[in-house]
Amino acid sequence: MRTFIYLSIFFGLIFVPYRVFAAVSGPCSNCHTMHYSQDGQPLGTDGPHQHLLIEKQGGHHSSACVTCHSSQTSSTYEDLGGCKVPIVFYYGSSAPTEYLAGGNFWWVKEGLGNDDTKGHNVFLGEDDDYLKDTGAPGGSISCGTHSCHEDLSQPYTGSDMVFVLNGKYGCQGCHLNVKHHAKDHANFESGLVDSADKGWYRFLSGHGFTGKGVKGYEYKDWEAGHPNLAPGGDAHNEYIGDATATGYGFQQSGGAGDGVTAFCTGCHNDFCPGGQGSSSPYKRHPSDAVIPNSGEYANVGGDSHLYDPLSPVAKPTVDTTPDTTVNPGTDMVMCLSCHRPHASPYPDLLRWDYLSQQAGGGGSDTGCFYCHTQKND
Amino acid sequence: MKKWSWLAVVIVGVMLLFSGVAVAKVSGPCVNCHTMHWSQHGKTPTSSYHGGTTIGSDGPYETLLVNDCAGCHSGDSAIIGAIPIVLRTSAPTGTGPGKSLAGGDFYWVNAGNPTKGHDVIDLPGITGQDSNIGLTPPGWDPNATPGALGDEQIHDGASSWTNQLTCAGKYGCHGRHDETTNAAAIAGAHHGDDSCLKPGSVDQSAQGADITTSYRWLGGIEGIEDPDWEWTATDGTTDHNQYKGVNGNSSYGDKTTISYLCAQCHGYFHSDIGSWTRHPTDIVLPSDTSKEYYMYNGGTGTDNDYSVVAPVGSTTFTDNGYPEAQITPGSTDSIVLCISCHRAHGTEYDDLLRWDYSSMVAGGGAGNVGCFICHTTKDD
């Protein structure tokens, strides 16, 4: 009898499937190589890389991150040995026609889109032509040399800030503490990510001394299909906002909550709620401000208040059930309502062409007019 | 939707397209007037990015504007794009049609002549109070406000002013007087539907409900707005503003007239007129042929040509109608107004007058000019 029990437990552990809670899955060799050596020769051209990472076949070898998250054939995601990998840098010769929620770095890459106004300059040595003397627009923080608050294209040298920042640049300027093996949700599934153990939403966190990061609901396919995702669906990320926030970053001057607005304003300090004016009439566009349920804003999303992934909003709380509607009086405008954090086809990383937005120009209630529903009338 | 319904929509749409109805709510690229974060390439926004609009030096500005009131409404010509210019950067040749807009121009007061305009602190050349009158408006009666919107008293009804005049708000002329900043005072007006104020779509019953539907955003005031602010305006035509006036308003009983707007600050000049101890306003031109007024603007007493030099007001406006081309003294289309003689912003003449008072000579034979447009025999 005892033997029977032991065998049952043994075979049960082997054969009963259980969920793998990790951002990545699949053969370790898809991503890692122990000695960067194969048959006595280096395994690539630019390594060895941190965390024993490989240079993916077909990837752009500009950095360890980019090599896996780039492709010349897909601008959304690829299957790497059974693990879906989001592509944030498509490097085909023509601009991608579809991309992920964060956009695509094609538009800022030298030799491709080559427009510094359209993306964060994360590629080594490809400095932003416009921001050389100013650092992050709206920013006032300066620490060390080439801090990420000043540029993302040169390696940082300075104090560690708990996250061992020395030498980091580019992707790691924002994704400070990447945890591909965090216990959040299975690869290519959706899930709520709201803690350090889970790696924080999209690996976005503050410096270690804050103990804070972005919370949100990660949609399984990174909203592949932008900019053509139909409104009114639930196939989207969910972002959190804090309408009581007053400062910038996660804790400066009262902090800016635990959403993307807090994260963005960690570099773009003046653009935080504190730099916008306390209420209407604002001096800078509000973020983490409740969309009023009055005037033109009451018609956000149209008669049915359809959530539009092109103009996402922040929620006061997020759960595992994305809303199909936007709720004026509760939901908030945020930085990502208008911008894509990686790069976009438009100046200032906007989700649409601001120069084409016309007061009194008619047309559909999209872009600026998703919220400002009467100004195109 | 049935076919005939769609046809009706198309027909109405085409009618509206060619109706000539001009709504003043702004149109055009948002970028011409607005900037989101007061940052362009990490620095102050540039004019070239913003459609050539002059960028202010004091930003960020409320409502995400690229400039303040004077910044947008100043320039070297009277109308730039679709923007009315009230502060010319070089001297206009005068005021009136073809020279300035209806309100005149701040040029002269901004250049340091305090008698020639309202000393609005928002003007770039104004650094302090009017050297002749100080801060308190001449004729100030705290009891004249609030106006028709019920939006608090101007300057909180203080007996003496401690703040200088602004474009709008608690210490200004335009917008709500319960707001302390220019932007808040006129919030919503630039993008609002003001068709009830426009020739061809006039709806007097809808006027004055809020700032957007108030004549020239003067809270509660009624009128018909000339589409080009009288840059072109001609006697005896419908091409001019139409001001609201009533026959008798000495106790501020009617708060919708243009003269009441002036009275909000210069109340005693409106209320304390006695038996003409002060020049009358909100009073009808007499039709009595034994007096001189019936020959207003060189007319015969019936259907006299409206004068754009010395305008008169009307009490009622016809729905979907137009300004009066002719007026008849004695009727409620012949109301003497404050602005029959003054221009609201400023002129080249002392006391913001439409003409040089010191050149008005009784018996001087000047003809149908200035004071003598109404006082038709006093130049004889």
List low-pLDDT spans of chain B.
1-5, 8-22
Instruction: Tell me the radius of gyration of chain A.
Output: 22 Å
Gap from first CA to last CA of chain A? 80 Å
Strand fraction of chain A: 5-15%
Instruction: Please give the oligomerization state of what you see.
Output: heterodimer
Strand order of the largest sheet of chain A: 7-8-9-11
Helical fraction of chain A equals under 10%
Account of the 3D structure:
- The complex is a heterodimer of chains A (377) and B (380).
- The termini of chain A are far apart.
- Chain A has helices at residues 2-15, 64-68, 171-174, 260-264, and strands at 37-38, 41-42, 70-71, 77-80, 83-86, 89-90, 191-193, 216-218, 238-240, 289-290, 314-315, 332-333, 358-359.
- A four-stranded mixed sheet of chain A has the order 7-8-9-11, with no helix packed on it. Chain A has a two-stranded antiparallel ribbon with strand order 1-2. A two-stranded parallel ribbon of chain A has the order 3-6.
- Chain A has a domain at 19-109.
- Chain A is low in regular secondary structure and 377 residues long.
- In chain A, a hairpin with a 2-residue loop joins strand 1 (37-38) and strand 2.
- With 380 residues, chain B is mostly loops.
- Chain B is 10% helix and 7% strand.
- Chain B has helices at 3-17, 69-72, 107-110, 182-185, 258-263, 268-271, and strands at 28-29, 74-75, 79-80, 83-84, 87-88, 166-168, 172-174, 223-224, 242-243, 283-284, 304-305, 326-327, 335-336.
- In chain B, the strands form six sheets. A two-stranded parallel sheet of chain B has the order 2-5.
- The longest helix of chain B has 15 residues, at 3-17.
- In chain B, 50% of the residues are buried.
- The model of chain B is unreliable at 1-5 and 8-22 (pLDDT under 50).
- Classes of the chains: A little secondary structure (377), B little secondary structure (380).
- Chains A and B meet through strand 13 of A and strand 1 of B.
